[in-house]
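anyone seen this seq b4? input:
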Amino acid sequence: MQAIEVQLPRYGDHFKLVSRAWIRDNTVTGQLDFPPYAHLDFAHHFPGKPLLPGVKKLSLMFQAIKAFCAEATGGKLFPVLTGIPLVRFFNLTKPGGVEIQANVFQDGIGGVATCTVNAHGKERASAIFTFAMNAEEPPEIILPLPMEQIDIKVAQGSIRGVFNYQGDEILPLDHLEAIPFTLVLEALGQNAVQASCSDASLANALFIVTYLRGTVFHGTAPRGTLDLHTEVAWTEKRGLVHAAASYGGQPIVSGDFGFVILNPKRA
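predicted toks r here
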């Protein structure tokens, strides 16, 4: 198959993660060459109309889990992400204060956490995470974002933190030893969007992920080329994606997610 030109018309250049893609029917295979550039510019999601990306919401939630586990174990054990059974994104999030809350259970072997993201007086996202506990700190797999006003209550199994989202943060990528799991998920979403390239009625439409389910993490992806595979089905207003990513033939992550289609420009 001949590679198609990657089309993400609403994204700025420094938020496009898919390097190349191939389409057969509604199945898209693609690749992410990490790091695709020296930094990730969140103002490119989207230029002139910044919205807090789902990748940031997920990173903030797992960052809260890491902070709780560090406090609860005296910095001796580290959470290793194994799955996200369910994520729901409820509302678009503009710049401003973002509150992250998590209730965490861990027993030294593994754990589970329920998390929420709130902003502008509304719940913006919720998620369930599962994780194993490890005595050795794994490579960083989240986007490190500065949380403030952190309140950890180990006895109650809770943590609360605040992130002040400006809409124009720039995150260096060159120092990361592994591909952050949130960028793997974002790349799978961007890969799936390529299936719409043959549908002129979806030109310039905005694809918003509304949920993820059954997401399983099989391993950590080191820097390099990540292979993406997405099977897409959609109607006029919404769609469903079965997605998987691998590195060197080894599975990294798999799961399903749903999306809605906003503001298509009818041809």
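The CA atoms of residues 98 and 119 lie 5 Å apart. The mean pLDDT is 92. kinda curious what u guys think
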